[in-house]
Specification:
The chain is mostly helical and about 150 residues long. It has a domain of about 90 residues. Helix content is about 70%, strand content about 0%. Helix 3 runs parallel beside helix 5. The relative contact order is 0.10.
Length: about 150
């Protein structure tokens, strides 16, 4: 339940970025979403999506805080250990790869001291996505001899 509350707040904030919502409203939704995701992660530490949601919200807050170096550093300090934890425990999680490439590869280029590091992260994540993946046989559906769906 907590995860879905956080997800709804996160989604509303993402939609707000597309609709030019008030940044204060976006910040409020993202902060509330983080609280919900953290509660969800505390109840089930193995549920990676709640932690990925937290990372995404922190990335969006970093974007909102660009131009305020102290706040950006504070948010990076909150997100970095979580990103490191998940890269170790769930390195192939596609949502983690997408959010870390997006936020740490694009938004943070303007604030990162080492500008080559985000680019390496992005390249590694894209290589991981390019690996061929096989579906479990239960998900493989064939309709006659046709392979073009």
């Amino acid at each position: 339940m907590r995860y879905w509350r956080g997800f709804a707040l996160w989604r509303r904030a993402i939609n707000g970025f597309n609709e030019s919502a008030d940044p204060k409203d976006l910040e409020h939704d993202l902060t509330q979403a983080i609280a919900e995701f953290k509660e969800s992660a505390a109840k089930d530490p193995a549920f990676v999506d709640a932690k990925v949601g937290t990372i995404s919200c922190l990335g969006s807050l970093i974007y909102l805080a660009l131009g305020h170096a102290d706040r950006v550093q504070e948010l990076i300090a909150q997100s970095s250990p979580l990103v490191k934890e998940l890269r170790t425990s769930s390195p192939d999680n596609p949502r983690l790869s997408g959010y870390s490439a997006l936020f740490f590869g694009t938004f943070l280029r303007s604030v990162a001291a080492d500008r080559t590091r985000p680019l390496k992260t992005t390249k590694r994540d894209w290589k991981r996505r390019a690996r061929p993946r096989t579906l479990p046989s239960i998900l493989s559906i064939r309709l006659g001899e046709s392979r073009n769906c």
